[in-house]
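so the lab meeting is tmrw and i was supposed to have these ready like two days ago... anyway. pasting both below. for each one the top line is the aa sequence and the line under it is the structure tokens. i havent really looked at them closely yet so no promises
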Amino acid sequence: MRVGQGFDVHPLVEGRPLVIGGVTIPFERGLAGHSDADVLLHAICDALLGAAGRGDIGEHFPDTSADYAGADSRVLLRRVGELLGPEWTIVNIDATIIAESPRMTAHKSRMIANVAADLRIAPAQVNIKAKTTERLGFTGRGEGIAALAVALIAAQPEPERAQGA
């Protein structure tokens, strides 16, 4: 078993959609970033990559590459699932969105469904929470949104070798 943790943060800006957990949330501002700036999926990607010892999201999908400009983070999450390879199985993911607003409760079930579908795991293996910072700090002032994630993965046993091989 191996554990990885991930963190991401993006500023809120005018003129962009707010996409978190692959869900477009009605809000007057969205997150700035090279891709769709989905803080939740980026934190989950880093947690999974860290658990598998495979670097971080910036190494695999650099913000200096035009290939990832405006990228859908669900596509990146699916690619991270592929990078784990057959030697790792995802046991569970636990993540927290940190935002003063908008409220996330109505969107969490779709976020969980998206993460589970993209990683080909059961929704019961994904837990997503949302917290405010009681108006403290940059998230409390509504300047940005952050996310934290932890992933637990388990090594798949090597296939038994044929007798006499």
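ok protien two:
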Amino acid sequence: MARSIIAVIVSYVVMFVLIFLAFTAEYMLLGANHAFRTGSYESSHRWIVIAFVVNFVVAIIGGFICAVIAKGGKAPLALAIVVFVLGLLLAIPSLMVEKANAVRPGGDIPMFEAMQKAKEPRWVPFTFPIIGAIGVLVGGKLKRRS
């Protein structure tokens, strides 16, 4: 039991770090002009698609790590539930934020300023918990096959 709890915690922390690193790299590679729509802080379609892929791949890695640490059992399922529930809880505040139509100046924008001002369609944050939970389950199954 303790091994499963540790597996879930460690895997979630690893996923958090990987997501942060991946989105940092994505912003550095795309830059403001490709991460946002022209003249605004609205996320571009390219950014959203890459974010879905990153989220899914990181979730698979997290599920695999969880299964390896737990050495079997239901730990990946528990991690999938944690990812889903916490993801939904973190998505709810996005409904309460007013959509400001801030004009984005041309050129580079520091990443932390971009993170603060970025706007995405309201449905996007609610898809990440679903994609994440599915990815964790896929990663957990990969370990069982190997």
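from a quick look at the 2nd one: The chain has a mean pLDDT of 88. The chain is about 75% helix and 0% strand. will dig more after coffe
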